[in-house]
Amino acid sequence: MSYFRVFRHIFIVFIMAAFSVGFASQQALAAGLTPASPQPGAGQMAQGLAVEYMMIDAFHVDDLESAGKGKPGKPLMMLNWSMGSGPVLTHAEDEGVGARISGFIKFASAGTYQMKIKSNDGVRLSISGQVVIDDPDVHADKFSDVANVSVPSPGWYQVYLLYFERRGTATLELHWQSPDGGNFELVPAEAFAHTPKG
After folding, report:
1. Running along the chain, 198 residues long, what does each successive block of 10 average in pLDDT?
2. What domains are there in the chain, each with its CATH number?
3. CB 129 within 8 A of CB 37
């Protein structure tokens, strides 16, 4: 077999493997999420997302999970933060901050939403226990890959997000596109809520 044929064979195998991984990932997301059960009532929730902070010199979002208990911070009304070199989210510090963000996100209708996050540094978004966006390492401002999120019914879904800012500037923005199409937009404040503690 010539070198050209060997190279062509290796290239075809590589492309097929990459396609299979991507297809499997899309299939996993297409399987759909599970709405919160029971659905939280209006009197049980407060606006925005709960956040727990820790001071950490992280390189990866996994570092946050093993960092121990953090300290509660002021809730985040939206994920629309372009902080530059200022304080990270509702924390007082501007570097070395990790955040565990939790609560609910409301999908107004069933269908497939497209979602993406612009971040600096690492971020991981889970909805109903499924990781839908994972851009976990140190990086400058950039958008994640677009996730296709299949929502089986309108309502509230549990959301959990890990985020850290290591050095320099900081950004955290969550964008979505509805099943009807149109432009990507920041997820609005009315789509977020959390259950207050205590």
Report:
1. 48 42 40 87 92 96 91 96 94 95 97 96 96 96 95 96 94 96 95 88
2. 31-194 (2.60.120.1560)
3. no
